[in-house]
Amino acid sequence: MRLGQYRGRHLRPKPKKHGPIVAMAAASVSIASPAYAGVHVVSPGETVSGVAARYGVTVQAVVRANGLADADLIVTGERLRVPQQVVTRSHRVAAGETLSSIAARYGTTVERLARSNRLTDPNLIIEGQLLRVRGAGSAPVAASAGGGVEASLERHAAAQGVEVDLVKAVAWQESGWRQEARSSAGAIGVMQVMPDTADYVNQALGGGGLDVREADDNVELGVRYLRHVRDLMGTTRRGLAAYYSGPGNVRGRLARYQKSYVNSVQALRQRFK
Length: 273
Fold this sequence. Notes:
The protein is mainly alpha-helical and about 270 residues long.
């Protein structure tokens, strides 16, 4: 790829005029809600099964949550409530972990973890302690050689000078911190990086030979690109819009689908502060 031909395409192809791309509406994101993890705005070509797979829930759960008469019929721009899976898992505390990091890993809250385990002091957990994790909205994120996805997010955020809570929120919005996540547009991994964006970061932004298919490399690619587009666009809001839809698609005023994405990420940042 010649760098002069790069047009800032990233997570999605250039949006069509008749409908928005995928977004999670920030006003609907309720971290404490036991029923719904958020709202998904249907993008062109998406299916119920694809939406269900993206959020780690069943097709039947999406159908029930939205009262769909036909699971094969959804339209661009339709807002689907994303049900939150209520499950119980066990987690053995590793060295250096905190209740807040465990809660973020499983998509739950410190308060719920403390209540489920009858912890009188949420700041006191012990290495090797077995915790019950109830109400998790997704499967735990995969571990990587760098000590886990969260450690990777923190390390590369610090290295690139980007706020940790912003990086974690973008990664959660994009994939739920899952390296196995794949989008219908071809985006890959934790940060949902498109292969051509990975090429651009490697060639133009100092990435070198980072592999988008490896979790730690994927995180570094995404964080490098996030820093780049924020610097390029001048503000965090416009930078997030550029990360989502490409710099060439960010105009004077953000489009509705871009605002939804930006607001959702900004709301999620509170979870990781």
